[in-house]
Design goal:
Elements lengths: L2 E5 L2 E3 L5 E8 L8 E6 L6 E6 L5 E3 L7 E6 L4 E6 L8 E7 L4 E2 L3 E5 L2
Parallel strand pairs: 2-11
Antiparallel strand pairs: 1-3, 3-8, 4-5, 4-9, 5-6, 7-8, 9-10, 9-11
Length: 113
């Protein structure tokens, strides 16, 4: 059974940093990609970043150069390091396992002064 649990969200000032974590159960990272999405209030959920089974990373243009997706195969953890945060980065961040159509419950990120 696939289970994804996000953590690490919170309130941060513009220009600050946060690191999100996703604990993944029931997924072999060596065979499957993992991704992060986000949903701002009143907007559709949007793609943020993905890391392939070969550990190749791809990031949305809106976060490129500021966010970094990574993973730890030994711990079955996926991370999203977020720097230079902007108010428009505010939203609920979701961990996603594309091959399993699985989502976590989300973690709230609020960027505000």
């Amino acid at each position: 059974q696939v289970q994804l649990v996000e953590s690490g969200g919170g309130l941060v000032q513009p220009g600050g940093s946060l690191k999100l974590s996703c604990a993944a159960a029931g997924i072999d990272f060596r065979r499957n990609p993992m991704a992060w999405y986000r949903q701002a209030p009143g907007k559709k959920r949007e793609f943020v970043a993905i890391i392939s089974s070969e550990s190749h990373a791809n990031h949305a243009d809106a976060v490129k150069g500021r966010f970094t997706i990574s993973r730890d195969i030994t711990k079955n953890m996926v991370y999203l390091q977020m720097t230079s945060l902007k108010p428009e980065d505010t939203g609920v961040y979701y961990c996603n396992a594309p091959n399993f159509y699985a989502w976590g419950q989300g973690t709230q990120v609020t960027v505000s002064s």
